[in-house]
Structures are given as structure tokens and as C-alpha cells.
Design brief:
Number of helices: 0
Structural class: mainly beta
Radius of gyration: 62 Å
CATH superfamily of the largest domain: Immunoglobulins
Distance between the termini: 96 Å
Shape: flat
Protein name: Ig-like domain-containing protein
GO molecular function, one term: transmembrane signaling receptor activity
Keywords: Disulfide bond, Signal
InterPro entries: Ig-like_dom, Ig-like_dom_sf, Ig-like_fold, Ig_Fc_receptor, Ig_sub, Ig_sub2
Helix content: under 10%
CATH topology of the largest domain: Immunoglobulin-like
Largest sheet: 6 strands, mixed
GO biological process, one term: immune response
Length: about 725
Amino acid sequence: MCSVGSDSIWNYQWYKDRNDNVVSQSVRHTITGDTLTITRAAESDQDLYWCQGEIQARYISSINSDPVTVTLNALPTASVKIVTPQGLLYPGETVTLQCDISDYTDWTYRWFIDNQLLPSQTRKTITISLPDKAGQYKCVGRRRGRPQKSYHSFSLPIIVTALPKTTLTVKPNPAYTGEKVTLMCSTRSDSSWIYQQYKDWNYNVVSQSVRHNITGDTLTISRAAESDQGWYWCEGNRVSRPTSSQPSNAVSLKVKALPKTTLTVKPNPAYTGEKVTLTCSTRSGSNWNYQWYKDWNYKVVTQSVRHTIRGETLTISRAAESDQGRYWCEGNRVSRPTSSQPSDPVTLTVKALPKTTLTVKPNPAYTGEKVTLTCSTRSGSNWNYQWYKDWNYKVVTQSVRHTIRGETLTISRAAESDQGRYWCEGNRVSRPTSSQPSDPVTLTVIALPTASVKIVTPQGLLYPGDRVTLQCDISDYTGWTYRWFRYNEELPIQTRKTITISLPDQAGQYQCVGRRRGRPQKSDHSFFLPIIITALPKTTLTVKPNPVFPGETVTLMCSVGSDSIWNYQWYKDRNDNVVSQSVRHTITGDTLTISRAAESDQGLYWCEGNRVSRPTSSQPSNAVSLKVKDYQPKTTLTSDKENVFTGDSVTLSCTVESSGWTFYWYRHRPDSTPVTTTSGYSYTLSWVSVSDGGQYWCRAGRGDPVYYTLYSDPVQINITGESKTVL
């Protein structure tokens, strides 16, 4: 409230924090006369406040009031907690909740479950039963003095957890007589549990005894016996709380007699340098370590450079005579102090490696011949052989030309790449044992002479109807007979050095090969020579100019898209009407020239090519219609301007029917020397003067000799002095 000690009527202005921070009307701030009311005060309302009066209808303000500090204290906050029990909550339990408000005293309490008031609960602590009263709990405090209430607490969820199921684990299982067995019972819970162990289905409780020890969640059977076999399960009871878990799964414990080990030795007998594998096994699964013994003095076999022990296997990497002797083994369970019965002893015998012998036939060999390499040992059968070539230990493997069967390597078609030093080594079938390597043998391969096919006649492109002579050449040796092939199919009747074929029926891919009685018995096949038929070329006829005017020269040109030499035949109107040389008709190579064309020269023309020195004709050309007009053409001359001033430009255009013309321009007289000649139909005079005026004519000409059109009618060009503008 703000007041001024005066009888005047005042309006009041309210300030907060600083002079320019005016407090205005709002949802929570109401100004009525001399009073500012703050409803639902908040921390943001804390600060210094002062006021000032203003006289109504006059510009008079009072002095600022003294500032007053408004301080706001937060309401105390309630909180809910579980007093008992601690940990997970299970069905059937009673839970005590407590509402704590740290500040002030004399509180009465209101409790809520799932936002519904519990009218009968007004104490600081309440007790609820599970599972019926589970839910979200919160509380609030009330008192007579200020503050009259607290803030509501956050909701505390009271969650019922299903009774946990116990899990029983038995290790080891199966167990061996005399072995220690551990049965562990556990729950997935944070509470403390006491466990009860049961055996078989008659609820036979397992109690402490000389061989049975129960500690916490573990039942330990020391020195298991067959009487310990059976079904076991367990159940948990909560310490200090009358809650039992669900019973565990039932586990069947099996107790077996100690197994006997079996020793196998492979290979036996073995060769020096061979890998020998001794395997110790039991019929009772895995998880065994094995101890190895040699001879009767219980000499333990240990790891060494040549002796590797891994799991159930003792491997002798390179057997020596010192490895001969009697071996046996015994199993020890991994992480369990249990030993098997010892195996029966096995005697290992070690023999010296045999030496292989290599033979090569024939040697030297010719390319394409079959070569047989044979590797043998003096120690019986059951050997596979490995073949090597050159000194980099390059292994010879199966391929299209190399076949390995038993003790033999066969090179079916020897090539120069097969030359080199060969040796072999034996490997025992089903055993990684190698014999001593054979002595090396050098195989020499001599290249076969090579056949080649060529066309004797004709040369150049080949056309339907041609006869072609082929020849097979083999440069080395004599006494050859020849075999010819077309598309890899042999031509049985063709055995000579040269053959003649007819086109187009016998076109194709040709090759040859030679045969003889002595070695080499054959040559290499020649490369394929393609005998390709070229379709008869089509001739193309061009006629220039066309149409023509009487007296003009006409050129008809016939061409074939081919690299050969051709002669040409000319026809007019029908097939039997051959155009021959005459006074006006000249034939030179591929060209027919008609000089001084006349109406009788009109008609359809075509041509055909004939090969020089070969009876081959091209396809006939397209037919071209030559037209001869019955008049001499006349040009038409026009100007783009009639009146021209000096310094201007003027363009003359000369038009005539058809194309291919050169234009001739005349001044003053048409029969005078042309002023100029242009390839286009227009002539432009630039920067004209008065002297350029007068009459102009044009005409066109083409061909050799030149054929001229008639002169055009004249065009008058009038040129006057430079025009002047008049103001």
C-alpha cells in the first residue's frame, strides 16, 4: 500500500528493482487505488519495491517512497520412503512407508495412492499389504501456523516383484568316481537367501555329512560315488523374511567309472623325416589333457623341436630312428584332478626313406610329340609322385597337356616351354611322407617346322566366280605329304602342296600341316588363312550438270568402292543399248563426257564395272535420268535500290534456273569485257560515286568449254550527289 499525507486525490506508480522497471497490471499483479496486490507469490517477485504519487489532472509528482524489500521463502517439500522391508518387494509382504518433511513441526499428513486420497491415513507412517495395495504413493503436510502446507512429494512406485526362480548348476556333470562335484543354487535377486538342497522326488533333504558339505548357496560332494547319482533341486528362503523362492529346475547328476584310454599311431611303420601322429582318446567326451610315456622306465615324452603335444595328439614332425620304441598314454581331466586308466602300449617302427629313379622317353623330343616321364621306387607300391621342373622347385601339375597317373607324367604335345631339368619325389598314399628325390634329367624339346598357307592367285579382293590357288610351304626337311583343312575339317582328297578352290562355295578358313615318315613326323599347323568373299561392289553414277541446256557439256562419272582396277560399260535406256565412243561422246576411264548436248541425249543412263584381267562384273549402278532442255536459259537482273547517293552501296542480283553457274557482270554494253565475275548470284558496289552510274547486264556460264545463258535485260543505276537535310 502506498499513501501520501495530503488531502488531494493521488494516482500511484509502482517500481521494482530500479526506477525504470514499472510494475504493471498482470494475471498475478493487481493495482487498485493505492494498493498493489501480488497473488500466488513466486521467487521472481522477490526484490526492492517503492512507489510515487501523482496528482490527478496536474503535473505534480510526490517524492519516491522509501524502498521495501519483499522476501519469499519456498514451501517445505515432503518426501516418501520405504522403511521396511529393503530391497525387492514380493507378494504377501507388508510394507511400511514414511512421509518426511524436514522443516517445521506439528504436521498432519495426507496420503495418496495413484492420485486418490487415503482419508483414513493421517500419520507420518502407514503400512500396506502386497500385492493388493501396490501403486504410486505420495504425501503432503498440513499445519496451523505458517507455512500452512508443504509441497507434495514425488510419487514413489511400490512395485511387486514375482517370486524369483532358483537356478541349479552342477559341475562337473557327468562326474567320475572319486571326483569333487559342486552344486550351486542361485536366484536373480539382490536379497540374502538360505538354500535347501533336495535329492530325488521324495523330498529327501540333503544334509551335511563326511562327503557332503553345505556352505551358503553351495553343496559340495567330495569323492563322488555311484550312490550320489540322482535328481537334485533346491529352493531359497529369504533371510529375516518369510519368503520362499520358486523351486529350481531339476538336474540329473551322473557318476561314471574312470574311462580307459586308447592309443593309435599313424603311420606305423614310419619313414625317417615323416610326420607321425599318436592320438590318445577316451570314450567319455572331451576336456582331457594327456600324458605321454615311452619305453618301460616311465620316461615322460615332453615338448621339443620335433615333438608337439596339442590336446589328445603327440606329433613327431620328422621321425628319426631314435623315435622307435613302445609308447602309451594316460588322460587327466582339464581343471579336474581325475586320471584315466593308462592305454595299452604301441610299438613305433621307423625306416629309412627309399630313393626314386626318373626315366624320360623320348629325349630329345619334337614339339607336339608325346613324352613319358616315369618315376619309380624300390619299396613297393602305395606311392604318389610329385614332379618338379628346374631349380626353383616349380611343381608340375595336371593341365590340358600334362597328365599325371600313378608313377607317370605324360606330356601329350611337347612344347619348347616344357624344356628343362625334371626330377621327382615319392609321397606315400594317405601319408605325408616323401622319398629321397630322384637324380635330375634334362628334357630337350626341338621346335617342329611350321607350315604356312598363302594365296598364289588371284591377288587382291576375292569375288564370287573367282578360282583361288592356295599353297602350303614348309621350309625345313623334305619328303612331306600335305593335309589340308577347312574350318578344322580335313579335306581328304587334297594332299598336294597346292590346291585350287572355287568361290563362293569353297570360301572359309584354310590351314595345312605336313606329315613325313622320319622324325619329326609332322610339322606345326599353319595359321588359318581366311578366304573371304567380297560382295560384288555396286557402282555409283553421278551426272553433272543435270538438267542441261542444248550445247552444254555433260560429265557422267561411274565409280566402284574397291581397291581394284575396273573398266566401265555405259548403257542408255535399255540393257542392250551400249553407249560407245563418238564425236560428241568420249569415254575416259570412269568418265563419259557428252559435248554439245542435244535433245537426243535425254534418257536413263547407268553403268557397270568389269575387273581388269578377271571375269568379274560389279553390280549395275543406279539409273539417272538426264534431261536436256529445248531452250537457252535467260538470266534476270534486279537491284535492291533504284536511286542511289554517292557513298552508298548497291547490290545487284542475277537469277537463273538450275545450279552450278558462274555469273558475269557487264556495264554500258553487254558484249563488252565483264566488269567482274562471281561464283554467287549477287554483286555489290560499295561507296559508289557518280561515275558508277549507268546500265548493267548479267549472264551465267558453266562447264568446260563454258556454256553461256542469254544476257539479262539491263538495269539502270542512277547515282546523285550526297543528300542534304533541309531545316
